[in-house]
TrEMBL record, chains A, B:
SUPFAM superfamilies: beta-lactamase/transpeptidase-like. It comes from Cognatiyoonia koreensis. InterPro entries: Asparaginase_II (IPR010349), Beta-lactam/transpept-like (IPR012338). Signal peptide: none annotated. The lineage of its organism: Bacteria, Pseudomonadati, Pseudomonadota, Alphaproteobacteria, Rhodobacterales. This is Asparaginase.
Length: 331, 331
């Protein structure tokens, strides 16, 4: 097991103030490592970065077709959204279609990260609902599958048919037996894998368009949904949204809590997974942008790339006091 | 130069999810290292952890006495507050006393971290002011010294008499020549030192009560102000506030951005400084609590200690999904 390596540094004035280490793997469709940093065998929780894997059973089961889910709904099932109205309105409509309401969600209420819609909620004197949870689209997918299967309401239980299907999809696409799981921020189980395993799963998604089996077709439709609706994945200003737009729909990317980021590159049939050892999102965003630039799929001069790779640290008065940037290992 | 060492780990379920490394030094009144982790010579920006040093010139110059500043005002000068009314009301009154207003502050407007008072501001349709900046108490001190010296309004300029006095106090208490400075979140210069140097300065404060020179008397009065008004230093729920209360006024502690924390222990004439290499506050809070427990000045069973040292990671639905805790190095 090798140690994590320096991936991202934070500068203030002429001195490096903080440093982020991590592990990263670029994997091909055969499951082999193309390039790696740190320890490919490091065991991690993918957190929200594996939502597209958790959405596979929704399609494979026939539930998505039976309920007529749109590509926008599939994108929401893969999203870590900002609780903005552009997210909560369609998720609420989806709940209506299912004949369910906010109380049927197992994810807890979360204050919207979208500042304008958060402030509107506060001005209206309303508390955040479960639909505002950044995972509510994934949970709408879980509820859809639950209904399709005629299963019980406790759909986040590890032994629930929905979670058993998610675990199977996770282990089959990572091609690993997951040694353990944790409970995620939204109360759903989150299965551990190596960084290599997570990258292998992303490579499966990347190469899915060239195959015609049920799982591959499901994977390809999820990738297409993600790149078609980047604003549903992470909301305006979100790294996933802005970077997917910058890549013009050619690459699907997804963040996960505690410093995880993944990418799916169909044109190269490559998958990427990375974990910042200390869990910092500012670093995972910088590192994924740097690797995408390195692979030639993201323009280093695009504002969305520069905002992550040479991110100005601005203080409360708007003064630029430093920069966040990738280390030499990533450039 | 030695590498940072593992200080704090974040667990989810049965697996360690993230890890924080850092440097820490416990220093005695003679400036010698009592115990250290990582590299005592690591160069850092103290950020807000050195506000009590930046407040020394305010007292030494005679400005505090001339303007009749109270211990509560001295505490506010050392604070990184939450922009709650208990902070902004006295700072605004202080501005009034100086015949100045919000526009005279050089710190930028910041949304209050106190949720209730933040929401009140949003409901009133008001934008945050400069007084809401967590450093506004320090800036009120800067303005007081500026007025006392008859100096110009640009009091955050590196060549302004206020900042020259702050730099001298910093270099004299750390007993180091600072190699560089950065611009802090509040636009004031922040001078770099080693972790050892910052701990040495804290030991100077810790032993100040036993000396009668002007600087030592100033230092002792600032320590007394901090421990007397913990709620002015960090607001309710803040780590500085809760941990200082838990130690019953015997220890002054102060957080700084990017994972810095310091402590002043008069009864032992010891100073502590630590820096989490990746800049995480959750880790600096855990590490300082662990060291204070180790030194016997903080009860490991006090709720405020347990909240940092065995901090439950709760998700949006209130489920405990993991723990933040110190590594074996700190226990």
């Amino acid at each position: 097991m090798s140690a994590p390596v320096d991936l991202v540094e934070v500068w203030r004035g002429d001195m490096r103030e903080s440093i982020h280490q991590g592990h990263a793997v670029i994997c091909d469709a055969g499951g082999d490592i193309v390039q790696a940093w740190g320890d490919p065998a490091a065991m991690i929780y993918p957190r929200s970065s594996c939502k597209m894997i958790q959405a596979l059973p929704l399609i494979e089961s026939g539930a998505a077709a039976a309920f007529g889910l749109t590509p926008a709904q599939l994108a929401l099932a893969c999203a870590s959204h900002r609780g903005a109205v552009i997210h909560t309105a369609p998720v609420n409509a989806w709940l209506d279609d299912l004949g369910l309401n906010d109380d049927d969600f197992c994810c807890g209420p979360q204050e919207p990260r979208d500042v304008a819609d958060r402030n509107a909620l506060i001005r209206a004197g309303k508390a955040p609902c479960r639909v505002h949870n950044n995972c509510s689209g994934k949970h709408a997918g879980f509820l859809t599958l639950t209904k399709h299967l005629g299963a019980g309401p406790e759909y986040v239980d590890i032994a629930h048919p929905v979670q058993m299907a998610c675990k199977a999809a996770f282990e089959e696409t990572t091609q690993e037996d997951s040694p353990c799981y944790g409970i995620d921020g939204c109360s759903a189980p989150n299965h551990a894998s190596t960084v290599h395993g997570l990258a292998r799963a992303m490579a499966f998604f990347a190469a899915a368009g060239g195959r015609s089996d049920v799982r591959s077709k499901a994977a390809a439709s999820l990738v297409q949904a993600m790149v078609t609706f980047p604003e549903l994945i992470a909301g305006e200003t979100g790294a996933c949204t802005e970077l997917m737009r910058a890549m013009g729909g050619k690459v699907a990317i997804k963040t996960g809590a505690e410093g995880v980021f993944v990418a799916i590159i169909p044109e190269k049939k490559l998958g990427i997974a990375l974990k910042i050892a200390d869990g910092a999102t500012r670093a995972s965003e910088c590192a994924i942008a740097a690797i995408l630039v390195k692979l030639g799929v993201l323009d280093v001069n695009h504002p969305a790339a520069k905002a992550r790779m040479l991110a100005p640290v601005a203080n409360w008065d708007g003064l630029v006091t430093g920069r966040i940037r990738p280390t030499a290992a990533l450039t």
